[in-house]
Amino acid sequence: MKIQAAVLRESSRPLVIEELDLDEVRSDEVRVKIAFCGVCHTDVACRDAVIPLKLPLVLGHEGAGIVEEVGAGVTRVRPGDHVLLSFASCGFCHSCRTAHPAYCEHFNPMNFGGARSDGTTTLSGPKGAVNSLFFGQSAFATHAIVPQSSLIRVDPDLPLDVLAPLGCGVQTGADAVLNSLQARPGDSIAVFGVGAVGMSAIMAARASGCSKIVAIDRVRQRLELALELGATHVVDAKETSDLIDEVRSISNSGVTHVVDSTGVGDVVAQALQCLSLRGTCALVGMYPPGHRLPIDTRFIVLNGINVKGIVEGDSQPSHFIPRLIELYQAGNFPLDRLITPFGFADVNAAMDASAACAVLKPVLWFN
């Protein structure tokens, strides 16, 4: 069938909306009519070749829409279902079988390889094949073919435009706190960088009952919103001469947990020194290839510090996204406060706004 998709043909160049051909669904695949799609910094990183991928390519990995057709082997959804789209996983490797699909042994080829396992793409155009299945979806398009492992069925009465970002950025920050760090009432936490991922961590920390929640950023407006969404304290990194001392004074002897969403090595080095004895630093940022951390190994050893890399919140989307939806419905996870809508025709403006940190979470509308 003919669809419209935003195609990246050259790195660091604008996406071009083109008419493409969408392949037929196969046994374990689903065709989804995309209604909304969040824009994530990972989309920007791939556009700008910070994460180099094969081109041409259709990006987009926080899709939400309605199932139109299912393959013969699909059991999780049926036509008419409202669904959120998340990352793809094989379902059979050790990580998948032990509820850690974000560490699927086949994660890279399934989410960044641009094609099915047999090398075919789901998209093509007059100039030939177009790389697809970005994070199992390529949702900067009016329709997408998606493996059923990427789908989460949701109540049709829920707002898909609000829920779309749960597929990546929001679950990365929130589930890092709820699932991987397993923050508990009375814990303290500092979040470095309060964009969409960091703000999701702030909201999750409040939902977890953390007693002290410190937001650190260089943008005053974001810090003000963080206070409204759950932070008990904020630190303006531009205005603070000794950030480590400031955070440790707030938390008395250091915080239980730190979440770094900045992807900046010098910030991580500071974050580690804000931890209490046996505290844990969660690294969830976009760290470029070859990135090295300037850390004091002796400090880590003597203080029992844990440094934990976390992909996608170490989430099992089919289980944890419904949990986040329940928090949202209860008024404990006001995700809608993060969102700025853009029309699909304005996809490049949305990408640029995300790259410039002018908005927290752009969401594309396809209707």
UniProtKB/TrEMBL annotation:
Enoyl reductase (ER) domain: residues covered: 10-360
InterPro entries per UniProt: ADH-like_C, ADH-like_N, ADH_Zn_CS, ER, GroES-like_sf, NAD(P)-bd_dom_sf
One GO MF term: oxidoreductase activity, acting on the CH-OH group of donors, NAD or NADP as acceptor
Signal peptide: none
Cofactor(s) for this UniProt protein: Zn(2+)
A Pfam family recorded for this sequence: ADH_N
Keywords linked to the UniProt accession: Metal-binding, Oxidoreductase, Zinc
Stated family: Belongs to the zinc-containing alcohol dehydrogenase family.
Protein name per UniProt: Aryl-alcohol dehydrogenase
Species in which this protein is naturally found: Bradyrhizobium lablabi
